[in-house]
Amino acid sequence: MDAALLNPEIQAFIKDNIGANIAKLALQKNPFPESNWIAVLSQIEAKTKAKNKLPTWFETKNIIYPSKISIEQTSSETTASYKASIVSGKCLIDLTGGFGVDDLYFAKKIEKVSHCEINPALSAIVQHNFKQLNISNITCYSADSMDILKTLKTTWDWIYIDPSRRNDSKGKVFMLKDCLPNVPENLAFYFKNSNAILIKTAPLLDISAGLSELQHVKTVHIIAVDNEVKELLWELHNSFSGNLSIKTRNISKDKTELFDFVLNESYEITPYSLPQTYLYEPNSAIMKSGGFDALGTFYNLNKLHKHSHLYTATKLISFPGRVFVIEKIVPYNKMEMKNYLEKSQANITTRNFPDSVESIRKKWKIKDGGKNYCFFTTDLNNHKIVLICTKII
């Protein structure tokens, strides 16, 4: 850890230049000739990234940041808070501690948290930051997490793991065995140290692929923030063999949309119909879950087409996603497009449609934005249609 960065003048300079153009700053003469100018610029970049994602760190004095990339890859405080709602007990060990965001929130629920980080420089930064944050129930260890587990010889209430993809796995199908640590390979050893394991993965991981590699999965949590899926959480309990629960969460500033279902349960196939009064578009967490029949059954909705994943009804209901009034149904052909949408302005979404949003805009000269929401999709008769809508929610 570069202690020189804690110089009050340097800290004031970092604070005053949040959001500044780093390329322009880099051309300036270093105002702190005894300090590493690149390191100062790196702090500005990383702290700028932390402003919205990590407000607790951003607002605390004398925080040291790792690289901007590390900040981009770490959990947000929003998702860390949700993870903490899953765990309970007296002790938890994080085998892939990183910048320690998740651990700060675990420490609000758990009496004793252990942060393992193989990179000694990052471990030192995290240990320093926890002191600035007045966190006293987190112990930092800098070593290989397998060695730490063997040395501590503790039975943990929870083990938390956020495996990272190996550099040589680029371009391959994302599998847990391609990550460090290799969770499938080490799972039996982990269960000797704890009966409960929480694994975080990127949303790129296919759920069925993850289930094929893991054992004793009780719940998969799909976490979206502002309708963008940020992470998958795999909750494993030793010897569990019941039905798997899927929990979807779309967290925004004003509310959290929830939808849960049982993966192995048999749901009735959602009936199909032509577009009715209202259009319902599931949020991104539900789209990732694949629970389309469960959703249709629970909310008593019809689908436009097997592969469109858009729902319709004559009644207005509260729904985990966007809701629209269908103002007009337009067949997708040259004449209708010229009459209703050519050279217009609209927000465009495609679902089960051969053309991309970009190609549609270019072909029909449609500007982005405005009050109209247009869904280019396919109906139950396999006809290409455009639904011109007004957004309600």
Automatic annotation (TrEMBL):
The keyword Amino-acid biosynthesis does not apply. Keywords: Methyltransferase, Transferase. The lineage of its organism: Bacteria, Pseudomonadati, Bacteroidota, Flavobacteriia, Flavobacteriales. It holds the Pfam family PG_1098_Fer. One of its GO terms (biological process) is methylation. It comes from the Bacteria. This is SAM-dependent methyltransferase. InterPro entries: PG_1098_Fer, SAM-dependent_MTases_sf, Thump-like. Residues 278-320 form the PG-1098 ferredoxin-like domain. Residues 321-391 form the THUMP-like domain. GO terms for molecular function: methyltransferase activity.
